[in-house]
Amino acid sequence: MTDGPRYRLILFGPPGVGKGTQARLLQQRLGICSIATGDLLRDEVARKTDLGLQAARFMEAGSLVPDEVVIGMVKGRIRAQGGCGAGFILDGFPRTVAQAEALRAADIGIDLVVYLRVSEEAIIRRLTGRKICPSCGRVFHVEYAPPADGAHCDSCSAALITREDDQEATVRARLRVYEEKTAPLVRYYREQGLLATVDGMQEPEHVLQDILTVLRQTRTES
Ligand code: AMP
Questions:
Q1: Which pLDDT does position 7 carry in this prediction?
Q2: For 28-83, how does the pLDDT look when each residue is reduced to its tens digit (9 = 90+)?
Q3: Has residue 65 been placed in a domain?
Q4: Centroid of ligand 1 to alpha carbon of 26 (angstroms)
Q5: Active site residue: 8, 95, 126, 131, which one?
Q6: Is residue 151 assigned to a domain?
Q7: pLDDT digits (tens, 9 = 90+) for 70-122
Q8: Is residue 71 lining ligand 1, measured as CB closer than 6 Å?
């Protein structure tokens, strides 16, 4: 691994694969910042900023927010988090080859891209049952990871919500967008020797262990 931050990771995979859950676990385990473009965009939408107003209609339709909007936002955030010495996790970025090229052009190095894989049926089941905490971002599921009282966040007690784009028709639209625009990045990062594939069908703690294992291997090999 090169000088600078110790971990510079991309968590990659289709929507609903568990990137947010793993980012949260890695953040706790490694003391590392997580930059989730979906969360940043939802925050902009909630605050009705110019960027949020621009992004909202794309998000509601399950399509991608234009590259230039997202790229500017991520670069600003990485710069602002310069004090985050242990590194960063990018969750939900890059989602197009143009976004990956923008990272390269900005000289933002990446040590490892973790590609989480799950079946399409599992994704639909996971997303349509998902509940999120609007306050701390913790993710629950009505069936697999229900909150203790059925309605509030176990960490911060805020009332849980269902994301609008987790309706089944929108989920299917997001999966089509993923196949068309985002999946080509598998080849892009494989060719750069940065891609490690992890089975995302396992329990979250097992997925985390597999990610930590590939991370250790990367650090030993470099
Ligand atoms: P997520 O929370 O990562 O599933 O993202 C929710 C929505 O935000 C996506 O369906 C897109 O509309 C938008 N979005 C998040 N990240 C990006 C990105 N890197 N590029 C374009 N749109 C994005």
A1: 85
A2: 898 888 999 999 999 999 999 999 999 999 999 999 999 999 998 988 888 777 65
A3: yes
A4: 20
A5: 95
A6: no
A7: 998 988 888 777 656 678 899 999 999 999 999 999 888 899 999 999 998 99
A8: no
Ligand 1 pocket, residue 87 CB under 6 Å: no
Taking the C-alpha atoms of residue 77 and residue 35, their distance in angstroms, rounded to an integer, is 8
Task: Give dist(CA 63, CA 175) in Å, integer.
Answer: 10
CATH of the domain at 187: 3.40.50.300
Count the domains in the chain.
1
126 lines ligand 1 (CB under 6 A): no
Structural domain containing residue 29: 7-119+182-221
**Structural contact between residues 7 and 84, judged by C-beta atoms closer than 8 angstroms:** no
Q: Is the CB of 92 under 6 A from ligand 1?
A: yes
Alpha-carbon distance of 180 to 172, in angstroms, equals 13
**Rounded alpha-carbon distances, angstroms, from residue 149 to 83, 142, 152:** 37, 11, 6
| Mean pLDDT for the stretch of residues 176-203 | 96
* Cα 93 to ligand 1 centre (Å): 8
